[in-house]
Specification:
Length: 554
């Protein structure tokens, strides 16, 4: 039960960190320093952001925590509030974390009672307290940071007129990145659930970022610049994670896994280990233009699980507009290669509602599925097994910090019309068509492009019973619409409105490292149908390279 409660506390605290926007928080734990938390007279220092230092001194009964060199007294108050919320959430007895105080205004002491217990009798030990206060301190630190906005004013039409920072706060907050992925912590010892889950496997992140520059993809922009992990280190991580968890499947994951420079070498290095453990290597969505015979041969040595490609659009014109840099012949060549190698299942991902999309682009999706079917008939060596081709479409959602952040989402009625159009055009028995439900995608667009006023809407919807909204069984669009009406806001203002490039966007005070001028340039090129080469072919001066000293690891 002790570990269960520690896990719950950490999970709750981590959720707070994510909600507060903590995307990069450097911290040093007791394990990093070699200290043993919980023994008498043990000293542990935790550094947060280079400014907020927490000194932990363990002793019997009472454990003082001190913070030094903080330039914001309010942060310490937030730490205490966060700790109180954590203990209240899990029905702990009052007094687990008692008052904080300061004698000189520079050093603050938090007192933790380790003789207090949870409602089931579980006693809080020093290690529980250390982990909890570290996470709470990180949450409070970034809560203090986000309060740097002094005021936001709106125009009469609901758009943002100005965002005013507090005195001494930056006008634009630049994201932080881990510059060297080999020096970053990697979790090889993970919690293994006692029940079957969706991602029931080891997930090995090969690199951070993406070289491609698809204009709709928020992750591709936000996680720039590209930073690779070394092949040798990845091999060690893979072996350690499998031996610790006992999983029999491993996914080599990244935004574009087949772009990892040493992918074939990594598969070769893991070959003997995978054979001994009967371990299956799997890759997520692949680039159809670089799925090589060498890579397929490595993947064939395990259980064939099917291949996934994401053409995203049904015609070359639209693929150029979104900067997919992929031709239909690239896709068909990869499918032929896979079918000739014994694969009999292919998944194809597309989007409906992309900017400039027409009915011809929608019908082009059905044409691609039919052409993949013909490729199987031409290339498959064993046709007795048949073929499974799955076409899946999602609804385009405009995202902040992308070249399409000014674009509207098409209406629900228009989206459903395009789904119906595509369903009628797919008439091959071996092709299965799946599409994303429209209400949840609509709300995703609303929240994605929302501003500070949506906080009240989300709370109101929750009070009406809206929980676990990502699950269709629990999602009710009616509750959300009622919440918007009660708060006096129109969801279509956020989801279905075309924005001017001169408009101050609610997220304008945050920078991912990619310059606003670059987004505007890419937005214009989309309507011209002009592609931008990938970062490995040519540096396109997006600005993200400045986050790692001027050169990306492409």
């Amino acid at each position: 039960m002790k570990h269960l409660y520690l896990t719950r506390v950490l999970a709750f605290a981590l959720a707070l960190v994510l909600l507060l926007g903590c995307t990069a928080c450097g911290k040093k734990t007791a394990d990093d320093t070699g200290d043993t938390v919980g023994q008498k007279d043990t000293q542990t220092t935790v550094e947060l952001d280079g400014k907020f230092t927490l000194n932990y001194s363990a002793s019997a009964g009472m454990n003082p925590y001190k913070t030094q060199n903080s330039d914001n007294l309010a942060v310490c108050g937030l730490v205490y509030e966060t700790l109180t919320e954590l203990t209240d959430a899990f029905e702990a007895e009052p007094g687990l974390f008692t008052a904080w105080s300061s004698d000189d205004g520079e050093t603050w002491t938090f007192t933790v009672n380790t003789d207090r217990t949870f409602h089931d009798g579980h006693q809080l030990n020093a290690q529980d307290a250390a982990y909890t206060i570290q996470t709470a301190a990180a949450s409070a630190l970034y809560a203090g940071r986000l309060s740097a906005v002094k005021d936001v004013t709106d125009n009469d039409d609901g758009t943002v007129r100005s965002i005013t920072p507090k005195e001494g706060a930056p006008k634009v907050v630049l994201k932080r990145v881990v510059q060297n992925m080999d020096e970053a912590y990697y979790p090889t010892k993970t919690i293994v659930p006692s029940t079957e889950i969706v991602q029931d496997r080891v997930s090995l992140e090969l690199f951070r970022g993406c070289i491609r520059g698809c204009r709709f993809c928020q992750a591709g922009y936000v996680y720039r610049p590209v930073r690779n992990r070394s092949e040798k280190l990845l091999r060690d991580y893979a072996i350690e994670a499998v031996e610790d968890s006992g999983y029999q499947d491993m996914t080599l994951s990244s935004l574009s896994t087949s772009d990892y420079p040493q992918l074939v070498e990594l598969c070769d290095d893991l070959e003997d280990f995978c054979a001994e453990r009967h371990l299956t290597l799997a890759l997520p969505s692949l680039r159809a233009d670089n799925f090589s015979m060498a890579l397929m041969e490595r993947l064939q040595k395990g259980r064939k699980t099917g291949l996934t490609f994401a053409p995203e659009a049904g015609t070359q014109r639209l693929r150029d507009a979104i900067n997919k840099n992929l031709t239909e012949e690239d896709l068909l060549a990869s499918c032929r290669r896979a079918f000739a190698g014994g694969y009999s299942a292919v998944k194809l991902y597309f989007m409906l509602g992309l900017p400039t999309e027409t009915d011809e682009d929608v019908l082009g999706i059905a044409d691609i599925a039919a052409n993949v079917m013909h490729a199987w008939r031409e290339s498959a060596l064993n046709k007795s097994r048949g073929v499974r081709i799955t076409v899946s479409t999602s609804w385009f959602v405009p995202k902040p910090h992308t070249a399409f952040q000014w674009e509207p989402q098409i209406s629900i009625e228009e989206y459903e019309r395009r789904v119906k159009l595509l369903r009628g055009a797919i008439n091959t028995k071996s092709v299965t068509y799946n599409w994303h439900p429209s209400p949840t995608s609509f709300m995703e667009a609303v929240i994605s492009c929302g501003d500070r006023r949506l906080g009240k809407v989300i709370e109101t919807a929750w009070r009406k019973g809206e929980t676990l909204s990502a699950w269709e069984d629990y999602f009710r669009l009616e509750r959300w619409m009622e919440a918007f009406e009660e708060c006096g806001l129109d969801p279509h203002f956020y989801a279905n409105r075309r924005r001017s490039e001169d408009e101050i966007l609610p997220w304008s005070m945050i920078s991912t490292g990619v310059s606003p001028a670059y987004f505007k340039r890419e937005h214009a090129l989309a309507y011209q149908g002009v592609t931008t080469p990938d970062c490995r072919t040519h540096c396109n001066a997006c600005g993200a390279n400045c986050l790692v000293g001027g050169k990306c690891d492409v």
